[in-house]
Amino acid sequence: MTQKLSVSDLLDIAPLTIDDIHKILDRAKFFKGALADRNVPQTLKQKIIMTVFVENSTRTRTSFETAVLRLGGRLINWDEKISSAQKGESFSDTLNYLNGYAPDALIVRHFEYNAPHFVAGIMDCPVINAGDSWREHPSQALLDAFTIQEFKGGIAGMRVAIVGDLAHSRVANSNVALLTKLGAQVHLIAPQNLQPRSVSDNVRVFDRLEDGLTDCDVVMPLRIQKERMDSAVIPNDTAYFHAFGLTRERLKLAKNDAIVMHPGPMNRGIEIADEVADDPHQSAIFAQGANGVPVRMAILDLLAGNHHV
Ligand code: ASP
Fold first, then answer.
1. Ligand 1 atom closest to 137 (CA)
2. Ligand 1 centre from 207 Cα, in Å?
């Protein structure tokens, strides 16, 4: 019997207790095994899960949808482009109507800062943040932690380098919050104009890739979030690749057995070289992506599941 979490929504990392995090990671491990054995408990049977995506997504959306279907739930996708938002309906009116249909959980992605909190204030069901603005992407951080644990055997004491657009990255924010909570050391590496404004304990900031990669167990380059910045911040992709692109040569500065992760979408030739992205020994990128399903199954199950086996 798996117990529920101490929170009723997943909006950000901070409110999760260490116990909550371990429950999610353990449950994800269980579901990964159940998927391999094709014997998944149908804990979302009879449940209706709504998705409200007000920003593009590939991995997050499809892995959440796969997770719902694998658990026997049913999905309703609210699609902004064919919705009454196009006729001038306010987002809060839309949500009040959706709440009236009494879904069992709602998964939201939004370009506006803190939008999932606004949604949770209206909905009676659990709300799961699938990424908002540059603020938080908690399910991504959980699947990243799950992947580190799987490949490295644990998270405490690991040195994790996150490289690139830290100023606009919700992935970096959620990862820093989660990894430091679990006892990892984080190296944030970025050109000065993309560095975070403040950092917590166990986090060091570097402006040269060569300095920040030393002795790292995990290296995670990030996409430059051009949609969230002034075009002048990164004038030239080639110059960025020369200074911050993760090449095989640079990866040698990390530990010999370091793994490379990336939340996707990858911009090959900008933050990561093909030879690194496709390296059969050191790249964990596609395995990380695949872990999105069991981890999101765990989140849905713990917040909205019928029962636990
Ligand atoms: N897929 C991640 C996100 O939704 C990373 C990215 O878009 O670069 O934030």
1. 9
2. 22
